[in-house]
Amino acid sequence: MYEINYSGRAVACTENETVLECLLRNGIEHPHSCRNGSCQTCMVQAVAGSVPQQASAPLKPSLREQGYFLPCICHPQDNLDIRPVAIMERLQVAVTGIKSLGRNLVQVKLQRPEGFAYRPGQFINLFRDDNISRCYSLASHPHHEDELVLHVRRLPHGRVSGWIHDELSQGDKIEVSGPLGDSFYVVDDQQQPLMLIGTGTGLAPLYGIIRDALHHGHTGPIHLYHGARDAADLYLGEELQRLQAEYGHFHYVPCVSGQASGDRYAAGRALDVALQRHPQLKGWRVFLCGNPEMVKLARKRAFMAGAAMQDIYADAFTVSA
Amino acid sequence: MSQSLFEKIGGTAAVDAAVDVFYRKVLSDERISDFFDAVDMERQAAKQKAFLTMALGGPNNYSGADMRRGHAHLVARGLNDAHFDAVMENLAATLQELNVPAELIAEAAAICESTRNDVLGR
Ligand SMILES: Cc1cc2nc3c(=O)[nH]c(=O)nc-3n(C[C@H](O)[C@H](O)[C@H](O)COP(=O)(O)OP(=O)(O)OC[C@H]3O[C@@H](n4cnc5c(N)ncnc54)[C@H](O)[C@@H]3O)c2cc1C
Ligand code: HEM
Ligand code: FES
């Protein structure tokens, strides 16, 4: 049991909880979003006490050296004096378009701020107001689109996704963070086979990554398995089919895990279908995005199928609630 | 100066090479995989690295008390000598696969053996 002192308020952190869980349990409304060390929304600075190395590992060295860390992935090993910080960069951008991509799904286009350099597949924090932000992945590719493109699924009673669907409109000004995350294509072994598995809007970053690999002249086979329970929740099918027709080494397999899939879709969960067709992933590079349970299981199964840990890139779309 | 086991095996690079092989073995060994299953894989991989570094005599800051504390929750779940032996077996098999000479594998086994009572909380 360690004591956390949060700007003068002392709370006790139990054995199995993170610092963030402890703060929230004690009614401290500390800002957070992804809860898995991706978005940096929860960042705090330690003024006293030693921070486990793990808890600051995703941060830039300059921040780490100043004692910044992420309480959502911190299991304390010392008493800690911490204070909230607001150092996340916020950029004002205009919404340049919103259109439906399917059931409960919209595409949001944002003006790309000056000097905003990103890798397709990274994500941004999108602020609804001063206190609430959520992560959305970048489906765009700077070579193909000037704007930033997001795919946003409406969740039932979702505070930010609902607001985007119901209230946001073209011309509005909103705030976003700079690009975050390290799940993107790097030019390395151009012949390496790529396996991409996504559920739901997990397709957004994968769409960016695939086009980036093709843009860089990747020659190894590229396999995309996109899954949903209902065929109505798959999207971008035409674009992906067109891409498949254009590039012989890109293979697109839409998967439906619910019933009545017919022969336009593979029957089963995307992860199962992918591993059934490719039981051996030794030497492959693997990208996993979407449902956190899928991502967790897929990481393990891809590893057991032979993929090296460092060749597995993943974004779990955890929700904050 | 004679080289340490860690240096003879190839240092950090050797540990990096061994992590994936060892972790894959542990996860597919039904005798012990349950102990590793629930935990987050990325965090686990870092811990496997800590384990291997220590088992191979590399630089680490773990005391016997740390080993006790670090495995106490596993002892509470029934961690015993048989599990300990299984981990040792997987370690030896990993090092064999990486062509580490038998006498160095024996040295690593001796280092692990020296932690047995702490790991098992006795
Ligand atoms: C790295 C990353 C990338 C992401 N990329 C995308 C993307 O490209 N596209 C996308 O659509 N999403 C993406 N997400 C998910 C996104 O960030 C949001 O989590 C999602 O949009 C939901 O936010 P919300 O504010 O609408 O829902 P929230 O208000 O946070 O609620 C989430 C869910 O919990 C439920 N809930 C809320 N409060 C309670 C309660 N008290 N009790 C029980 N249930 C409750 C809600 O009904 C809702 O279904 C990503 C997430 C991460 C971490
Ligand atoms: C051979 C002697 C052993 C040594 C030297 C050893 C060493 C270590 C080390 C250094 C860590 C990392 C601690 C940390 O940084 O938090 C660790 C964690 C762990 N060990 Fe061992 N270990 C040994 C035996 C075992 C055995 C026999 C098991 C179970 C079968 C086991 C299961 C684990 C687990 C599950 C963790 C992670 C615990 C957590 O996530 O909290 N270890 N071990
Ligand atoms: S990094 Fe902690 S909530 Fe996202």
Descriptors:
heterodimer, A: 321 residues, alpha/beta, B: 122 residues, binds flavin-adenine dinucleotide, binds protoporphyrin IX containing FE, binds FE2/S2 (inorganic) cluster
> Counting H and I runs of at least 4 residues, what is the number of helices of chain A?
7
Strand content of chain B: under 5%
Number of helices of chain B: 8
Inertia-based shape of chain A: globular
Beta percentage of chain A is 25-35%
Form type of chain B: globular
How are the strands of the largest sheet of chain A arranged? 9-8-11-6-7-10
Radius of gyration of chain B, taken over Cα atoms and rounded to an integer in Å: 14 Å
Largest sheet of chain A: 6 strands, antiparallel
- Report the end-to-end length of chain A measured between terminal Cα atoms: 25 Å
- Total E-strand runs of chain A: 17
Multimeric state of these chains?
A: heterodimer
Q: Which radius of gyration of chain A do the C-alpha atoms yield?
A: 20 Å
- The parts of chain A where pLDDT drops under 50 for at least 5 residues are none
Distance between the termini of chain B: 35 Å
Largest chain-chain contact? A-B, 8 and 12 residues
Uncertain runs of chain B with pLDDT below 50, 5 residues or more? none
The number of E-state strands of chain B comes to 0
Helix content of chain B: over 70%
Structure description:
The longest helix of chain A is centred in the middle third of the chain and has 13 residues, at 203-215. In chain A, helix 7 links the parallel strand 16 (285-290) and strand 17 (312-316). Chain A has helices at residues 19-25, 61-65, 159-166, 203-215, 237-246, 270-277, 292-304; strands at 2-6, 9-13, 44-48, 68-69, 80-84, 91-102, 105-110, 123-127, 133-137, 148-153, 173-176, 194-199, 222-228, 250-256, 266-267, 285-290, 312-316. In chain A, the strands form three sheets. A six-stranded antiparallel β-sheet of chain A has the order 9-8-11-6-7-10, with helices on one face. With 321 residues, chain A is of the alpha/beta class. The model of chain A has no long low-confidence stretch (mean pLDDT 94). Helices cover 20% and strands 29% of the residues of chain A. Chain A is built from seven helices and 17 strands. Chain B is mainly alpha-helical. Chain B has helices at residues 5-9, 11-27, 33-37, 41-55, 64-76, 81-97, 102-113, 116-119. In chain B, 22% of the residues are buried. At the A-B interface, helix 7 of A face helix 2 and helix 4 of B. The structure holds flavin-adenine dinucleotide, protoporphyrin IX containing FE and FE2/S2 (inorganic) cluster. FE2/S2 (inorganic) cluster (FES) is lined by residues 32-35, 37-42, 70, 72 of chain A.
